[in-house]
């Protein structure tokens, strides 16, 4: 905490984030989001981060186990999409991925190196 919450400091923060009072951690998240999406305005980045925080507070804080399951599902879905792109020839690692039919619908594909059978 290098700075105190003086009126000058608060004014600078509000000026930087379109009139919103944003903590340092959220400010960094907004900057990171803008770095990933350069055409995103500060106001839209702040709105997107606020919506993400709202979703977090309404799910993770209420039921952490359900949130973990949902997060694992999202990770598996992204991994499957990544493998599908690799198979289509747009990325490396196509030799170790499963065929596209294994990545369809609700089923999860496995890498060729995985020896565990489906249960």
Number of strands: 0
The total domain count is: 2
Biggest β-sheet strands, sense, barrel: none
By oligomeric state, this entry counts as: single chain
Whole-number mean pLDDT: 76
- Poorly predicted regions are 92-104
Give the fraction of residues assigned to helices.
Answer: 40-55%
Key terms for this structure?
flat, 2 domains, 119 residues, 0% strand, mainly alpha, 4 helices
Structure description:
Pfam families: DUF1677. InterPro entries: DUF1677_pln. The chain has 119 residues and is mainly alpha-helical. The protein folds into 2 domains: 53 residues, no CATH class; 38 residues, no CATH class. Helices cover 55% and strands 0% of the residues.
Secondary structure elements and pairings:
Blueprint: H1 7-16, H2 24-36, H3 42-59, H4 64-87
Can I get a quick summary?
By secondary structure, this protein is mostly helical. The chain has helices spanning 7-16, 24-36, 42-59, 64-87. α2 crosses α3.
């Amino acid at each position: 905490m290098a700075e105190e919450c003086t009126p000058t400091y608060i004014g600078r923060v509000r000026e930087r984030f379109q009139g919103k009072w944003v903590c340092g951690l959220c400010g960094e998240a907004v900057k990171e989001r803008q770095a990933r999406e350069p055409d995103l305005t500060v106001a839209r980045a702040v709105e997107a981060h606020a919506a993400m925080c709202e979703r977090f507070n309404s799910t993770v804080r209420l039921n952490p186990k359900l949130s973990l399951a949902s997060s694992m599902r999202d990770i598996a879905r992204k991994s499957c999409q990544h493998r599908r792109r690799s198979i289509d020839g747009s990325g490396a690692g196509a030799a170790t991925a499963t065929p596209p039919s294994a990545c369809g619908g609700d089923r999860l594909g496995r890498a060729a190196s995985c020896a565990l059978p489906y249960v």
